[in-house]
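EI: anyone free to look at a 526-residue chain?
SC: sure, send it
EI:
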Amino acid sequence: MRDIEHEVLIIGGGVAGLVLALEVAERRPVTLLQPERDGQGASRWAQGGIAAVLSPDDDIEAHVADTLVAGDGLCDEAAVRFTVEQGPAAIAWLLSLGVPFTPDPDPAAGYPYHLTREGGHGARRIIHADDATGRAVVETLRRHVADHPAIRLRHDLTAIGLIADTAGQCRGARCLDEHGRVVELLAADTVLATGGASGLFRHTTSPDPACGEGMLMAAELGAELMNLEFQQFHPTCLYDPEGPPFLISEAVRGEGGRLLDLEGRRFMPEVDPRAELAPRDVVARAIDAEMQRGGGDHVWLDVRHLGEARIRHHFPTIHAHCLARGLDIAAAPIPVVPAAHYSCGGVATDLEGATTVPRLYAIGEVAGTGLHGANRMASNSLLECLAFARSCGRRLRHPRPASRAPLTPWQPGRTPIPREEIAEIRKALREEMSARVGIVRHDAGLATAARRLAELAERLAPRLDAAAPDAALASLWHALRLARLTVACARARRESRGLHFNPDCPVHGDPDPRPSRIRLADLDDD
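SC: here you go
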C-alpha cells in the first residue's frame, strides 16, 4: 500500500527526531514515525545531562579543547566548534519549552541551574534534571509535538528500508504496520533519527537498544558510513545478570564516586591522573583489565562516603531503582560492568545533517558528524542531538523541488523465516561482537569475527529474496551487515586510538589521522 506523499518524513522519536519535528513544522508539514519501542530508546534513558557552556566561569574554548582531547585526535574541529557554540541557545530553547532542569539552591551560584561535572570535562557544565535528564527532555518535547497541528505522529509503523528513485535520491521509507502489511511512505525529504548500534553487543546500557538499522538503511542507498570501529562502552552499567540493563550515570563519578576492585582497593589513580574522571575509554579499559586480573564479573562503584542525603538529592532515580532491585547504594557499593553504550560513528553528514544521498538526512546517534572523533565525551550526545536537529531544521524549512524520477522497483517475497531462527542468528551475532570486537580487540579475534559473521550472512542471504517482509528479519539483516562493516573498519585501523584498542598495534599510527570511511559496496567487494 502506498501512502500519500509527505513533505518531511522523520524516522525515530528520540530527542533528535522530536526537536527536528518542532523546528520544521513551523514551515512544512511533518510526519514523525515513533514506534512504541522508541519510548524505551536511548534518549529516554540518558541520565547525566547536557554539556553546554552556561557558567560564567566556563568558556567555549575550554569546552572545545576538552572535546578534542577526548576525541583522541580524530574529531572534526569545525564540527566540535559548531556544536559547542550552539549549546547555550539550545538550552535556552529547552528552558522556554518548560524542561524541568534542576535549580541550584546556592544564592552565590553564577548560573540558576545546577551544573555537574563528568569525565573529560575540565569544568562543571552539565545541566541536568536530577538524574533522569533524558526522560524529562523527551516527555517535554513529546507534549509539544503532540499539540502541534502540523506534525502527524505515527506509532503504528516500523521502517524496514528506504525508498530510492532512479536518480539516486531518497524518496521516503518502506514500513510495516501492526498487521505486517507493507506501507510505502513517499516523502520530499527523509530524515533518519534512529539511534546507534549498541544492540550489536550482548551487554548494553539500554533495555531495547538500536542495532544500527538506520545506518544500514542509508548504506543500502549508497550513503557513506564513518568511524564504525569507535563503539563506546559505558564504564558503569549495573551488574545484575538476572535483571534488565540499567546505567549508573557518569555524574555519579563526577560527584565523587570511587571505583574499587573486589577487595575494596581503589585502582583508577594508578591508571590515570584524572582517576575516575578520565575519559570513558580509559575508565572502561581499566575496569576490563581489573576484571581480567581479578577474575571477577564486575568491580565496585562506591558512593557511601557521600552520605545518604547527598545521594538521594543528586541521584534519586538511581537510588530508587537500585533499592527496588535489593541494593541500597547509600549502604553498599554498586556492582558495575562496562556495557555497549554509544556509537561514535554512523552515517557521514555535514553540519546540516545532509548525507551523501540527496534528500536523505541523519541526526543524533545514527549520524557521524565528526564531533566525537575516537571517543565521545560525556553529555556531548544530547548536545549533538540539539545542535544538529536545529541546524537540519533550518535547512529543511526551505524546500527544494521534489524529484519526479521513477522509483526503483521492489517486490517482497512470501516465505516466512521462523522467529526462532532469527533469534538464534541474532544471539550468535551479539556473542561474536562481544567476544572479539569489544573494549579490547586483537588481530586474530577480528579475523575470526569477520569469518563467522560472513558465515551467518551466507546462511541468511540466499533466502531473503523469497522471505516475507518482517520487522525482526529486516533488523537482523541490517545488523549483520553493519557488524561486518564494523569489523572491516576495525581491521583496517592499524593503530590504537580512543575506543579502538588493539594490543597488536598499541600506539597511535598516522600523526594526522583520518576518519575511516566505508560503503556497503566495500563489503560486497570483500
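EI: The two ends are 36 Å apart (CA to CA).
SC: 👍
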